[in-house]
């Protein structure tokens, strides 16, 4: 519809309305999904930036001048670039235009958030498997925006399971650059009160003997059962071993305290009756007992005692030791032995000492048997023949040199051939042994034209050896010696 105003009329506001209808061959092309103007900041020093979008769809024929694809490189700068898509249908055209702007923002990534550098520890309520933990807020410092609030996953106030839980917090600036940090939330199971100590329901009764009006009372040890720590030893006041006067009104309080500071207590009474006196201490060795292993063993049997206590009423009382004398103990010095005397009235006294087991004897090294064996010759087909060899020795860590014993011994007779085996063995004072083997080869030569051999090359000055410290004997090694013979 169009409106025409005629100014020459007396009433200029008289208007004439009429319609103009234009008929075409049909409706024009329809374009759907035309993108809006795109702004994609540049966060780098490059001159162009790759930008993508969803390509519009037209119902007609796409013009050949349209953007070839739904993406492209655009220059960085303050001016937008127009992108147009045109379609034709039945002689009519329709277009879709939008702009792409790539401003140079010069954006820099924010610094990491200020997450805690050490684990955050929380404790559940007793019996729970999770706990709530609040933390933060954490922020990042950004050159362009100042402070940026970090977003954490899981967020502050979440439930965390018992154990180690990772939390990641990140900041993202307006240009899309981000930075993150991670910290650990450690959840520990909450503490529960330990149970009461196992104090004796009927108290403790001791008997006093002699002229004394008091007696020493020993009791316990008492323990408490704790859900987190297992068994907790109780501390008693007065302590076990304290002296109590005759009577039955001496209260003892025993208390267990767990690692979280929770406590539980029990009470009982000590009754001291006139009568028996406690035996004296057994005569345990002040320096303990030391034994040595044999043959590379990791344990040894230790014998000790017997130990006795002096008792005013009974005289001497035999102590009972745990572990008992004759028991096997492992190598080390922490093998505790407790010996206790108990009199007829049930009063006891104990002593303690340690059994120290040290590693004992080591095996000697092998004897120095000849690697190539020993070769001798007979004359004129004679058999058997006498072979001399050695002596051979072994090196021993405890004894130094040990003389080997050979079987057959040096000076034995051997038949012609090379399969005459000899075994030489060293045995140390602890019974440990080591051996070597070699062969004696007996070769025959003809008697015809035989001449007497020259004398052996014995040392003109003899052989001198030295004893080890405090020893009265020493091992002497010499030879072998040889004779020169024209026939052999």
From TrEMBL:
Keyword Repeat assigned: yes
Signal peptide extent: none
UniProt source species: Holothuria leucospilota
Residue stretches making up the HYR domain: 24-104, 189-274, 359-444
Pfam family, one: HYR
Lineage: Eukaryota, Metazoa, Echinodermata, Eleutherozoa, Echinozoa
Residue ranges the record marks as coiled coil: none
Record protein name field: Hyalin
Keywords: Repeat
């Amino acid at each position: 519809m169009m409106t025409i105003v005629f100014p020459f009329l007396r009433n200029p506001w008289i208007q004439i309305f009429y319609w103009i209808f234009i008929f075409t061959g049909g409706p024009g092309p329809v374009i759907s999904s035309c993108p809006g103007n795109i702004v994609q900041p540049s966060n780098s020093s490059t001159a162009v930036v790759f930008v993508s979008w969803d390509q519009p769809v037209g119902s007609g024929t796409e013009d050949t001048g349209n953007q070839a694809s739904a993406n492209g490189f655009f220059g960085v700068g303050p001016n937008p670039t127009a992108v147009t898509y045109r379609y034709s249908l039945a002689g009519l055209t329709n277009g879709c235009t939008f702009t792409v702007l790539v401003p140079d923002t010069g954006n820099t990534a924010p610094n990491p958030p200020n997450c805690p550098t050490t684990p955050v520890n929380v404790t559940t309520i007793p019996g729970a498997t999770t706990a709530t933990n609040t933390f933060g807020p954490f922020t990042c410092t950004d050159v362009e925006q100042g402070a940026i609030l970090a977003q954490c996953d899981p967020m502050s106030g979440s439930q965390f399971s018992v154990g180690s839980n990772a939390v990641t917090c990140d900041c993202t600036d307006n240009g899309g650059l981000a930075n993150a940090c991670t910290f650990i939330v450690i959840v520990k199971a909450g503490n529960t009160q330990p149970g009461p100590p196992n104090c004796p329901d009927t108290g403790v009764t001791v008997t006093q003997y002699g002229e004394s009006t008091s007696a020493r009372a020993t009791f316990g040890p008492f323990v408490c059962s704790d859900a987190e720590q297992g068994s907790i030893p109780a501390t008693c006041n007065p302590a076990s071993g304290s002296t109590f006067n005759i009577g039955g009104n001496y209260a003892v309080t025993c208390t267990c305290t767990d690692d979280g500071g929770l406590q539980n207590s029990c009470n009982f009474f000590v009754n001291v009756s006139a009568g028996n006196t406690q035996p004296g201490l057994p005569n345990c060795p002040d320096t303990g007992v030391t034994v040595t292993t044999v043959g590379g063993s990791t344990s040894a049997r230790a014998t000790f005692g017997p130990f006795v206590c002096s008792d005013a009423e009974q005289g001497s009382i035999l102590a009972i030791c745990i572990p008992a004398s004759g028991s096997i103990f492992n190598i080390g010095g922490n093998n505790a032995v407790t010996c206790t005397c108990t009199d007829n009235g049930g009063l006891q006294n104990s002593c303690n000492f340690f059994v120290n087991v040290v590693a004992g004897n080591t095996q000697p090294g092998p004897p120095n048997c000849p690697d190539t064996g020993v070769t001798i010759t007979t004359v004129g087909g004679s058999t058997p023949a006498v072979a001399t060899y050695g002596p051979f020795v072994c090196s021993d860590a405890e004894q130094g040199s040990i003389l080997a014993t050979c079987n057959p011994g040096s000076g034995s007779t051997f038949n012609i051939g090379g399969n005459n085996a000899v075994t030489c063995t060293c045995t140390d004072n602890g019974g440990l042994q080591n051996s070597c083997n070699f062969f004696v080869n007996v070769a025959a030569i003809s008697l015809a034209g035989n001449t007497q051999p020259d004398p052996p090359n014995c040392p003109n000055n003899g052989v001198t050896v030295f004893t080890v410290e405090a020893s009265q004997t020493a091992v002497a090694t010499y030879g072998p010696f040889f004779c020169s013979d024209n026939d052999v």
